[in-house]
Amino acid sequence: MKSSKDIKLIKFLGDSFVWGQGLDNYEYDVHPWGGGSNEFILHNIGDGVRNWEDISSVAKRSELTYDIDKQGEYIKFSLYPDDMHRYKNRFRSIVEQRWTTTVCDRLGCRGIQKIDNGGSISETIEMYCTELTDNKPDLAIIVLSSYKRDEWGKYNHNSNKDEHLYFNKIKPEIIGKVIMRDLVYELWEMADMFELDEPKLWYAQQMQKFTQEWFPEHYHREIYIGIFEFFKEIELKYGVPILFIGSWLEDGEFVFKEEGEIFDWYRDRLIPIKYDGKEFASFYPLIEEYKLIIGNDFNIDDNHPNKELHDAVANSVIEYLEKEK
To answer: Could you list the residue range(s) of the whole structural domain that residue 72 is in?
Structure first.
């Protein structure tokens, strides 16, 4: 990997912990749609939009109807150019404050990441393998999301047709149980939501308990072996060095402690987060124990990293890169 002074372009991949959800609240009023960020606008302005010029042009429409997952509500409101200017400013605020921007500013390099919020492991892999610029990135920094976000049943069916799918590295019987577990979880959620009578609710509860019991810890381990083996292969194939920052999930601590060659490979590429005189293998303890979250700063329900944590991550990444030879 190149030394920090020779890095010209970094590709940042992940989910909302890379995107910077909620950071606009430090500069503007707390966002009225729940989680405290303008992800609502970016997610719904148009599918497939990947650059801000396209998003700006949507303001020419006089009225848009958005469907959000908030107790089944439909919110209808007018979106005029003045409103779009406001949301552009909120987005600018997020970009300016997030850790990825700070890293690039301090190193004097460019950074590239997708404009919209959220992400999954499959999407991260696809973005890693896609040439987004004329120049090849000098490295990719990845925050893994939950593998449960991937549509295992859909992708497993097409697994032999898509070179970007890490499912090929995982045993079919494990994939089958992941799919079953997810289906049972959905059954339980529906049972609870629709207030089924007691016998049916009991059945849903027993199914949930059963799937938890036959999904042992070593399955969890096998899934991450498959994920890391796949990242190892595409790193060799595409030649863009990969670095990781530990996930916001408890999985971030789990994979750091696991033994085995592929977990050593992961640890060798892991950037520790430094905070309060300590080193952390993932976002997880900083979110769950230290509560460095947007919600604590604004008294809202938002467990995304606050400005203090974004700054700590930026400093950690810069220190790591500057020490690399």
So the answer is: 21-97
Q: What is the pLDDT along the chain (325 residues), one digit of tens a residue?
A: 788 889 998 989 999 999 898 898 898 877 654 444 444 445 444 333 333 333 333 333 333 333 333 333 333 333 344 455 556 667 778 888 999 989 998 998 888 887 777 788 988 998 888 876 567 899 999 999 988 888 665 554 444 445 557 888 888 888 877 777 777 766 666 666 666 566 566 666 666 666 666 666 778 899 999 999 999 999 999 999 999 999 999 999 999 999 999 999 999 999 999 999 999 999 999 999 999 999 999 888 889 999 999 999 999 999 999 997 5
Number of domains in the chain: 2
Give a yes or no: residue 154 inside a domain: no
Q: What does the DSSP assignment read for 66-84?
A: EE--STT-EEEEE--HHHH
Q: Quote the tokens at residue 21.
A: 């959800």
Question: What distance in Å separates the CA atoms of residue 236 and residue 67, rounded to the nearest whole number?
Answer: 42
Residues 38 and 135 placed together within one structural domain of the fold: no
Find out whether 174 and 167 touch, Cβ atoms under 8 Å: no
Same domain, 246 and 287: yes
- Examine the domain organization and report whether 133 and 26 are in the same domain: no
The answer to whether residues 93 and 226 belong to one domain is no
- pTM assigned to the model: 0.80
My answer on whether 256 and 302 are in the same domain is yes
| Six-digit token string for 65 | 């109807």
Residues 232, 269 within the same domain: yes
Place of tokens 């008294």: 299
Residue 165: which residues within 8 A CB-CB, separation 6 or more? 122, 125, 155, 158, 159
Residues 16, 43 share a domain = no
